[in-house]
Amino acid sequence: MKLDLTKPVQTRDGRPVRILCTDRSPGLPVVALVDRRHMSGDDILCYSLDGRYCCVDSGDDLVNVPEPPRERVMWMPVFDHYFDHNRYHIHGYLYQTLEHAVRAWGDGKDTLCIIPITITDREPDNGEG
Fold it and tell me: Residue 98's domain spans which residues?
């Protein structure tokens, strides 16, 4: 994944970073304040444009701060199955809106209810779902 300096960054090991400039010198143009973690104050470190602190992977390298998980509510029918009247069954389909779930199952005689399910997406939305 490519570093995007227009978005928030942190060190690879999770420490807060504040970018001071990105035009210092050709070899290491990015200058940043990096939290020292267990000591007071910040270090001033220089980086390449791709976020490298040195020639090998390091906990000091810059990475973009991960986007927080996105939560969304989907809808699932619960129905009394025709061959087992002693149990409730949750249908295997999730619907993006309550209206879609009602349209698909709401008028069914075995449908007991349609319940909201909260889904947490751990990956950024790529526009396909």
Answer: 70-121
Alpha-carbon distance 76 to 12, whole Å? 39
Same-domain check for residues 34 and 75: no
- Decide if 108 contacts 79 (C-beta within 8 A): yes
Mean pLDDT by 10 residues, the chain (129 residues): 91 95 92 88 93 89 91 84 59 83 73 84 52
Q: Are 56 and 99 part of one and the same domain? A: no
pLDDT digits (tens, 9 = 90+) for 13-42: 999 999 999 999 888 999 999 998 878 889
Residue 30 identity? V
Q: Clarify whether residues 74 and 54 are in a common domain.
A: no
Last residue in a domain, options 18, 46, 64: 64
CA–CA distance, 72 with 13 (Å, rounded to integer) = 29
CA atoms of 23 and 55, how far apart (whole Å) = 20
Domain count, the chain: 2
Say if residues 31 and 20 touch (Cβ distance below 8 Å).
yes
Q: What is the DSSP string of 46-80?
A: EE-TT--SSSS--TTSEEEPPPPPEEEEEEEEEEE
